[in-house]
């Protein structure tokens, strides 16, 4: 059974044994803020995450989410798109302008244009309702693996790193291990999706990478158009003139390549 299907019964994958509370949270576990105006769904997601080792806070509209973000530190935001008042897309765009908090959007709309709209606002991933609880957990762990080192506690261990490898291009330097971008020594904030995409390009400098390969390695969903959207966002951060890129080149029929000084 999927989450958000009609009916009052909780999905079997989320059902708890009566009288058995979830285990106490690990203070080092990733902290997720779940924001959804559907209080039943919000409670089900919170229970699922707690049973799988996450710390969880909840909010039921954008205003409450903003208030909680002022007083708590979270590692990821699970955010419903269609909420009364300020929508999930509007909140995502606003938060992205000020920082790089990873965001997973929940949406009842699963069309390609809807997915693209979510990516364009700066979301790291999206998930259409109704969804399988296992897929929600997999998406959250995937985002955290790319963004929060301590998420290894909930995702089964850290991934491969390229510690100490730094690529330079123009005034830029990119630390592949830390996925940290600097311009003339100053850190430039990237979203987790942008950092992952740049990391894929930087791992094979001056070589074309197809859209399919970029989508697979950077875990971009939504096809070629979604890859193009992420490239446009990255160019806006890196290029002095995004319409005439110096660093991230489009190679017709071959994909994209990051040109370095070497």
UniProtKB/TrEMBL annotation:
As annotated, the DNA-binding region falls at 164-260
Keyword Glycoprotein belongs to the record? no
Classification via Gene3D superfamilies: 3.40.50.2300, 6.10.250.690, Winged helix-like DNA-binding domain superfamily/Winged helix DNA-binding domain (1.10.10.10)
- Modified residue annotations for 4-aspartylphosphate: 80
Domain OmpR/PhoB-type stretches: 164-260
Q: Where is the Response regulatory domain?
A: 31-144
Q: Which InterPro entries match?
A: CheY-like_superfamily (IPR011006), OmpR/PhoB-type_DNA-bd (IPR001867), Sig_transdc_resp-reg_C-effctor (IPR016032), Sig_transdc_resp-reg_receiver (IPR001789), WalR-like (IPR039420), WH-like_DNA-bd_sf (IPR036388)
Q: Protein name, please?
A: Response regulator
Please tell me the species this chain comes from.
Answer: Tistrella arctica
């Amino acid at each position: 059974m999927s989450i958000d299907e009609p009916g009052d019964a909780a999905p079997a994958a989320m059902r708890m044994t009566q009288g058995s509370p979830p285990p106490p949270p690990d203070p080092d576990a990733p902290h997720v803020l779940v924001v959804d105006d559907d209080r039943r769904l919000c409670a089900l997601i919170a229970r699922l995450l707690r049973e799988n080792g996450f710390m969880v806070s909840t909010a039921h509209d954008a205003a409450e989410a903003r208030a909680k973000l002022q007083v708590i530190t979270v590692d990821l935001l699970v955010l419903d798109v269609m909420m009364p008042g300020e929508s999930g897309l509007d909140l995502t765009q606003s938060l992205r302008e000020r920082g790089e908090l990873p965001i997973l959007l929940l949406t009842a709309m699963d069309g390609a244009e809807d997915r693209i709209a979510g990516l364009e606002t700066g979301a790291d991933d999206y998930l259409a309702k109704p969804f399988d609880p296992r897929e929600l957990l997999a998406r959250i762990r995937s985002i955290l693996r790319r963004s929060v080192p301590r998420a290894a506690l909930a995702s089964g261990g850290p991934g491969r790193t390229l510690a100490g490898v730094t690529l330079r291009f123009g005034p830029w330097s990119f630390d592949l291990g830390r996925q940290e971008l600097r311009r003339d020594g100053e850190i430039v904030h990237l979203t987790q999706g942008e950092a992952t995409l740049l990391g894929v390009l930087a791992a094979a400098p001056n070589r074309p990478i197809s859209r399919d390969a970029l989508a697979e390695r950077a875990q971009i969903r939504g096809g070629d158009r979604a890859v193009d959207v992420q490239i446009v966002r990255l160019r806006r951060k890196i290029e002095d003139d995004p319409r005439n890129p110096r660093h991230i080149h489009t190679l017709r029929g071959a994909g994209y390549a990051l040109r370095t000084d070497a």
